[in-house]
Specification:
alpha/beta; 2 domains; Nucleotidyltransferase, domain 5; five-stranded mixed β-sheet; 26% strand; single chain
Length: 241
């Protein structure tokens, strides 16, 4: 069996896979040690551990130590590359592109097989452009929705907002105005990225991932939401190597 990790700044998602698909899955808070996962999967025979990580080296080292003790294996960490299959990294220094963005783009292009705008709404919002050839044309990075809400709460008197993005119509109270503002800002990023590809004569498909992107389906009804996009990219990379 293969244990897969998507290690982000706020949380770590994991899933256990065999030839039949996902057996069990879950999440860990970013501060929780990996030993808390042991009792959930100790009955399974894990022979490989695959990882997409954007966290500090110390956290990766903790995973290495736990996996070696628990299963007797060392995890394999995905890395951003200059190219993989049809997808070509647009960064002049490919290794500087976040591996979560890289894997999400690989999976999105594998699904769409054409131009696409890949949006991941997590701790940060990332928007990446791929043309019809699979060339990465660059992207945008903005604070995540939760970070925006915390910034307002910390720096603005009597504004303490929590919630998911809704529609972009002007709000009639403070909470709805903040949430509408976040949605409108995110729509602007997506529309700008889409316009860049349209300017090149292409009609991109919108691919969404990340927990905070679910509410965007009502704003972009034609978008494709794929919750495990990073995991799917991880499988593309390691299944052939």
């Amino acid at each position: 069996m293969i244990l897969q990790f998507d290690m982000g700044n706020t949380r770590t998602k994991w899933r256990l896979r065999n030839d039949g698909g996902t057996v069990v899955r879950g999440e860990l808070d970013g501060s929780v040690c990996f030993s808390s996962l042991s009792c959930q999967i100790e009955e399974f025979l894990v022979d490989q551990v695959w990882v997409a990580s954007v966290v500090a080296p110390s956290r990766n080292e903790a995973l290495n130590a736990w996996a070696k003790e628990m299963f007797g294996v060392l995890p394999r960490f995905a890395r951003s590359q200059a190219e993989f299959g049809a997808v070509k990294n647009g960064y002049s220094m490919p290794q500087r592109l976040g591996v979560d963005r890289w894997l999400a783009m690989l999976a999105a292009f594998n699904y769409v097989r054409g131009p696409c705008v890949v949006v991941d709404c997590g701790s940060a919002i990332t928007v990446d452009l791929l043309d019809a050839r699979g060339m990465h044309l660059g992207g945008y990075i903005a604070p995540g929705l939760v970070q925006m809400q915390r910034s307002l709460a910390l720096n603005t008197y009597a504004v303490d907002i929590e919630g998911s993005p809704g529609g972009p119509s002007p709000g009639k109270d403070t909470q709805s105005a903040v949430l509408a503002g976040q949605t409108a800002m995110l729509m602007g990023l997506i529309q700008q990225a889409t316009a860049e590809l349209v300017r090149l004569g292409q009609s991109p498909e919108l691919v969404l991932t990340g927990g905070d992107s679910r509410g965007l389906n009502q704003v972009f009804p034609g978008a494709r939401f794929i919750s495990d996009l990073v995991f799917d990219g991880l499988e593309l990379v390691f299944a052939v190597s």
